Amino acid sequence: MPTPVKSVLPVVLLGCGGVGRYLLRHIVSCRPLHANQGVAIRVVGVADSSSLLVAEDVHSTGLDDALLTQLCAAKSAGSPLSSLLGRGHCQLFKNPEARGKVIDAATTLGRTTGLVLVDCSATYDTVSLLKDAVDHGCCVVLANKKPLTGAYEDFQKLVSNFRRIRFESTVGAGLPVIASVTRIIASGDPITRIVGSLSGTLGYVMSELEDGKKFSEVVKTAKSLGYTEPDPRDDLGGMDVARKALILARLLGQQISMESINVESLYPSELGPDAVSTKDFLESGLVQLDKSMEERIRAASSRGNVLRYVCEIESAGCQVGLKELPKDSALGRLRGSDNVVEIYSRCYQSSPLVIQGAGAGNDTTAAGVLADIIDLQDLFQTMA
Ligand SMILES: NC(=O)C1=CN([C@@H]2O[C@H](COP(=O)(O)OP(=O)(O)OC[C@H]3O[C@@H](n4cnc5c(N)ncnc54)[C@H](OP(=O)(O)O)[C@@H]3O)[C@@H](O)[C@H]2O)C=CC1
Ligand SMILES: N[C@@H](CC=O)C(=O)O
């Protein structure tokens, strides 16, 4: 006998790049698993930077799986969402109308069936949409760190109903870092320190450099493997790790902003986004850093050490930057895109809670986002 459907979760996805497309593929391929659990995800809309593709009647139907599969193929091939018009029961809205349509869906579905607004973009532009959605009683799931790392008031607003927001993938991709921190806090066990290697890109880059590869080459490979941010300077400049540190520090109750975090950049300001385009940085900027990075790695190695980009969060302050560490230390042993996080608290004082594993990549990140969506199912119960 088929399992009765207990929860239907309508979803609007913002962003169908590397992570967003993997999410859609996971949603489609997990249909039988979710059906067995009595859960169904109904994707009612998908937006990119210029338009929104939305089901004809968001109250009763979603975009069908054939269309979602075609959407992933079209976006992978660089075609716009508008190329999908006429292939299913859907409508297309271009910006700025698209934004209004997302709010319409949030308003009507927030009041009736509920809605999960999923942000897999990499922009600050979604913040006001997300805040509106929260006001309309919608749930929010984030892979995008930016909405939680802008103004402190925005962070407060988004997490104001903690039962309705999930953002596990913002720190450590699919690793259960946020969940672990949240559980420790909830138990009244004060967290005193979090230290770790929280960049899949920089972890990968540093361990590949130890094998004698060129900085410029390994950064490009990290990008092709889906580890980097859309502009890899977000990773190389430490900002992506600083955002993760800020999310964790704010979770611990620190009312701080990005300016309070000491951030070490691996590229000079002459190669920054204000001076050089991403394309030029990748094509001709990166090679300028090869020699100095090689020298830093060689100097550390001559002392039996390795370089790791380390994130430290304490009540006294937060800092992110390169550290020379013994090869056989927990961080020194890290290879590839793995992250490791050590959490110290009263209960985990001399023996910290350690979380380690793949910390970047479209597949694992999207899996974390999907698990977050499914985690909200109890708020979407359709039967007693
Ligand atoms: N890759 C990883 O390992 C991890 C990534 N993340 C986070 O996941 C997010 C997505 O990363 P990734 O998929 O690699 O990024 P991509 O650049 O591949 O995709 C970003 C998507 O967002 C869309 N977009 C841009 N602006 C808007 C907007 N205003 N509204 C709706 N959509 C918009 C883009 O549209 P268009 O297609 O038109 O350009 C694109 O489809 C990032 O925030 C990243 O930090 C988090 C953890 C790990
Ligand atoms: N660019 C990030 C992706 C996950 O947040 C990283 O390299 O860790």
Automatic annotation (TrEMBL):
Metabolic or biological pathway: Amino-acid biosynthesis; L-threonine biosynthesis; L-threonine from L-aspartate: step 3/5; Amino-acid biosynthesis; L-methionine biosynthesis via de novo pathway; L-homoserine from L-aspartate: step 3/3
Homoserine dehydrogenase catalytic domain ranges (all copies): 176-374
GO molecular function list: homoserine dehydrogenase activity; NADP binding
Gene3D superfamilies: Dihydrodipicolinate Reductase, domain 2, NAD(P)-binding Rossmann-like Domain
UniProt binding sites for NADPH: K145
Keywords, in A-Z order: Amino-acid biosynthesis, Methionine biosynthesis, NADP, Oxidoreductase, Threonine biosynthesis
Residue span, Aspartate/homoserine dehydrogenase NAD-binding domain: 15-164
EC number: 1.1.1.3
Catalytically driven reaction(s): L-homoserine + NADP(+) = L-aspartate 4-semialdehyde + NADPH + H(+)
Binding site for L-homoserine: E229
InterPro entries in alphabetical order: Asp/hSer_DH_NAD-bd, Bifunc_Aspkin/hSer_DH, HDH_cat, HDH_CS, HDH_short, NAD(P)-bd_dom_sf
Co-factor requirement: a metal cation
Protein family (similarity comment): Belongs to the homoserine dehydrogenase family.
Name of the protein described by the UniProt record: Homoserine dehydrogenase
Gene name of the record: LOC100282632
